[in-house]
Design a protein that fits this description.
Length: 202
């Protein structure tokens, strides 16, 4: 069974995915795969430098991600072009990892699930949700970015209502990190039961 975990930026997806991983669930994280496909020396990283600027290359050959993010979110067309470069490589890497993953179900962390219209590729969609004001304060504290960039990043994503409409399951992350574990534990039991049903049907 394939479960997609999504949510707005700074909503708590990483914290939730770590809790699932601690329960032994295979986690395939699109953000981590994006870092892997842009490893120093990779052809894809060369294409990013060619399109978005050679000055994004650090002395060690790695990508200045903060600068790339600023450029991408300052120009919607550039952001779409970046996504078109990255998404096929990320999808191919995710498919490879899924072939080798074990366990009754797999958790795919897909931040842009709603924006890319990918919900129907998964058996369940799990949304991590919190108020946008909380996303903004967390984003500013976490990344140390300007208010302007933070607002641009939030506005580039699907509305909160659209994510909630896509959800089969919901984790609320507006009450502190300690409130996440019980919600994850309950969903883990639910997914194990659902996965057993899926396997029996097959």
């Amino acid at each position: 069974m394939r479960v997609a975990l999504t949510g707005g930026i700074a909503s708590g997806k990483s914290a939730v995915s770590r809790l699932f991983a601690a329960l032994g669930v295979p986690v395939i994280d699109s953000d981590e795969l994006a870092r892997a496909v842009l490893a120093p020396g990779s052809p894809l990283l060369g294409a990013v430098f060619a399109r978005f600027g050679a000055d994004l290359e650090r002395p060690d050959g790695s990508l200045d991600r903060a600068q790339l993010r600023e450029r991408a979110f300052a120009d919607p067309a550039a952001r779409r072009e970046l996504e078109q470069l990255l998404h096929p490589a990320i999808a191919a890497r995710a498919a490879q990892l899924e072939q080798t993953a074990s366990g009754p179900y797999r958790l795919h962390v897909v931040p842009l699930l709603v924006e890319a219209g990918l919900a129907d590729r998964y058996d369940r969609v799990l949304v991590v949700d919190c108020p946008q004001s909380m996303q903004l304060s967390r984003l500013l504290a976490r990344d140390g970015i300007s208010q302007q960039l933070a607002h641009a990043m939030l506005e580039a994503q699907a509305p909160r209502t659209a994510r909630l409409a896509a959800a089969d399951d919901l984790i609320r992350n507006d009450a502190g990190i300690e409130a996440l574990a019980p919600q994850v534990a309950a969903l883990h039991l639910k997914y194990l039961a659902l996965a057993a049903g899926v396997q029996a049907a097959e």
